[in-house]
Amino acid sequence: MRTVAWLLVKLALAGSILLLFYAVYLDGVVSERFEQNRYQAPALLYSRALNLTPGSLTRQRVEAELRALEYTSSPGARDQGEYNARDNAILLHRRAFDFADGFEPSQRLLLQFEGSRLTDVLAWPSQQPLEQARLEPQLIGRFAADSGEDRLLVSLEEVPQLMQDTLLLVEDQDFYSHLGVKPTAIIRAAMANLAAGRTVQGGSTLTQQLVKNMYLSRAQNLSRKFKEALMALSLDYRFSKDEILEAYFNEVYFGQDRGHAIHGVGLASQYFFGKAVEDLSAAEIALLVGMVKGPSLYDPRRQPENAIKRREVVLRLMYEKQLISQVHYLAALDAPLLRRESSRLVLGDRPDYVDLVQRELRQLVPGREWQQTGLRVFTHLDPYLQAQAEQALQRRGGRVDVAELEGAIVVSDHQQGVIRALAGTAGDTTGGFNRALDAKRPIGSLIKPFTYTLALEDPASYRLETLIDDSPLTLIDERDREWTPRNFDGEFKGPVTLYQSYIESRNVPAIRVGMDIGVGQVRERLYNAGFATGTHAYPSLLLGAVDMSPVEVSQIYSVLANRGEQQRLTSIEAVSTHWGQQLYRQQRRAQRVFTETSAYLNTFALQGVVQEGTARALTTMVGETGLAGKTGSTNELRDSWFVSFDDRLLTTVWLGRDDNQPIGLTGSNGALLVAADLWNQTGVEPLQRTLPATLSTGAFDRLSGLPVGLECGGALRLPSHQYREPANGRCAGNEDDEEDDDEPNWLQRLFGG
């Protein structure tokens, strides 16, 4: 007996030592993850916030935004996310939101309209005029963490006290007094389960539930329960109760959104109710706390009857324990189960724009360490413009009969230097090859404004009225072969004004000007405008023999639209962690590429392209709006380009085939039609350009380019550095009257004569 007893003592001692080492090991596992890698959280992407600015917004835009944000119609708009549309006003209750520049509480607003235009924004019910107000942004996408879990991390301070108290009431009333486990509860649950022959009761504390969710599998066996208890003891010893409770609120599981697991009350509040956790009502808190017991069993969308019954049980407990008053209890019982009907966290796919954001984000926040804190990425996407751009591209200007015709469209705000919308396919928008970013094709005549704008910086040599020779020209190309460029119409007009050459997109005059000022200089201005890919300085560059994507074209043209100043186009405004720590904030930096005067002259000419040049069809379809634009086509009509801009937006459209076969469309009867469709939907803000002090508006003979009287009919009306009205007000150019006959002509400048 003594031998057996001694053996048992040694076995007990060995077991204790092994248990001690095992407990130390588990303690290390618990501590390491809880301290260093507690969660994996996604990057959540938001659109721009719609500024409610009087004068510039239509009622249609506001109501479309409210629908997209899932605001619901309600007579008094008393709860967040509700609105009431009246004859000439909209009363709405704007949700609270943590914007990129700070948190704003919920607010009731009265929007007043005259006709369709927003005229006043008032606080309600005080009716105090507001200088500014905005709606919260839309959630447009997410980049999942490696775990596939979605959550929006919140601090314990953000979780309402009522929610904290209710959770402890329902799940663990002794949370702040026990050591992580409750032996009596475990024994009681074991006996009940043994009597029932199945699992009917759980004895886990919140700490044990957290351990199970963070560290263990869902297997139901004694060894896992033993391991769970040891780890819960360790967690309770190492960390404060508040830290454990905060972790629980961020870890608890609430169901699936397609292939993404919804974890934490922060994201669950958005998913089920479309609001921040701070703003949950008693009824909403009761539903979420009730779902902890069984997310699938009490899913309010799939199992609404179960969810209502469970909510009622939790509400009754809240009332009995005096967490809520009788008035609030009765009101909560009658409250709708859900205020957000959609079963998807992100409404509407914008894969092409999200692709752009992802590429930029990789540069701003490299690696995958961001998963520990999650990211909130505030983008410049305008969902309304995005929808209009996608629809316009899908319609393809009515050219859907062209076999395998594809396309891309980019809409940017050239004043702010940001991309508002981007679509990289003319088919469905489920993702794939993003032509807006990756389809690099020759840009054709889109290059010509860069040649002319550069030339116009030297008014002694080039002005809009300057004559350029449009006659046959032979050059030696990069392969030492003779190259004889032709115009698109196959004709040569002899001397033509630079302006006429510009609006008709004539090739030979553009080449003569480019050769005179230097092909290398044109290439250098492309680089200054933001084109980042190396290219040659051969004469063919002057006719657009350089490959660019639609985004790259938008980048360089934003300089022409923005009065000659370059800003790097971006899709991201700010990046912060889920905790609110700012990691990046866009800083707008502009640098001058062209002089203000030459940029003004270029814009004037581009308006002429639309009014009377190759893009005059746009005026027919959109009206006399003052839009500026440039058509572009490539050899054998393989590519159709059109770039256009008003005072705020710049739109780039490309049409072509992925196999680079001809499509039979020029810029004017292909891409232009798509742009016209878009402008008709979005409206046009007329260009506001002030005539520089160095220029005056003059009248010039269309054939000779010489000044004529201001009253002469049919004359070109052009801004010029050197206009002097003839004393006799003649209406026909007369070279004998010119005083600057000694000025070298284009041929002398080209060959140094």
UniProtKB/TrEMBL annotation:
Which SUPFAM superfamilies does the UniProt record give? beta-lactamase/transpeptidase-like (SSF56601), Lysozyme-like (SSF53955)
Ranges for domain Penicillin-binding protein transpeptidase come to 407-645
The alphabetized UniProt keywords are: Antibiotic resistance, Carboxypeptidase, Cell membrane, Cell shape, Cell wall biogenesis/degradation, Glycosyltransferase, Hydrolase, Membrane, Multifunctional enzyme, Peptidoglycan synthesis, Protease, Transferase
Which residues are in the Bifunctional transglycosylase second domain? 56-135
One protein family per Pfam: UB2H
Pathway involvement of the protein, from the record: Cell wall biogenesis; peptidoglycan biosynthesis
* InterPro entries on file: Beta-lactam/transpept-like (IPR012338), Glyco_trans_51 (IPR001264), Glycosyltr_51/Transpeptidase (IPR050396), Lysozyme-like_dom_sf (IPR023346), PBP_1b (IPR011813), PBP_transglycosylase (IPR036950), PCN-bd_Tpept (IPR001460), UB2H (IPR028166)
Region entry Disordered, spans: 724-745
This protein's major location comes to membrane
Q: Which domain of life is it from?
A: Bacteria
Tell where it localizes: Cell membrane
Q: Output compositional bias ranges, type Acidic residues.
A: 734-744
Q: What reactions does this protein catalyze? A: Preferential cleavage: (Ac)2-L-Lys-D-Ala-|-D-Ala. Also transpeptidation of peptidyl-alanyl moieties that are N-acyl substituents of D-alanine; [GlcNAc-(1->4)-Mur2Ac(oyl-L-Ala-gamma-D-Glu-L-Lys-D-Ala-D-Ala)](n)-di-trans,octa-cis-undecaprenyl diphosphate + beta-D-GlcNAc-(1->4)-Mur2Ac(oyl-L-Ala-gamma-D-Glu-L-Lys-D-Ala-D-Ala)-di-trans,octa-cis-undecaprenyl diphosphate = [GlcNAc-(1->4)-Mur2Ac(oyl-L-Ala-gamma-D-Glu-L-Lys-D-Ala-D-Ala)](n+1)-di-trans,octa-cis-undecaprenyl diphosphate + di-trans,octa-cis-undecaprenyl diphosphate + H(+)
**Residue stretches making up the Glycosyl transferase family domain:** 140-318
Q: Which PANTHER family match?
A: BINDING PROTEIN TRANSPEPTIDASE, PUTATIVE-RELATED (PTHR32282), PENICILLIN-BINDING PROTEIN 1B (PTHR32282:SF11)
| Entries under NCBIfam families matching the protein | PBP_1b
Annotated function: Cell wall formation. Synthesis of cross-linked peptidoglycan from the lipid intermediates. The enzyme has a penicillin-insensitive transglycosylase N-terminal domain (formation of linear glycan strands) and a penicillin-sensitive transpeptidase C-terminal domain (cross-linking of the peptide subunits).
Report the family membership: In the C-terminal section; belongs to the transpeptidase family. In the N-terminal section; belongs to the glycosyltransferase 51 family.
Official protein name in the record: Penicillin-binding protein 1B
Source species: Aliidiomarina sedimenti
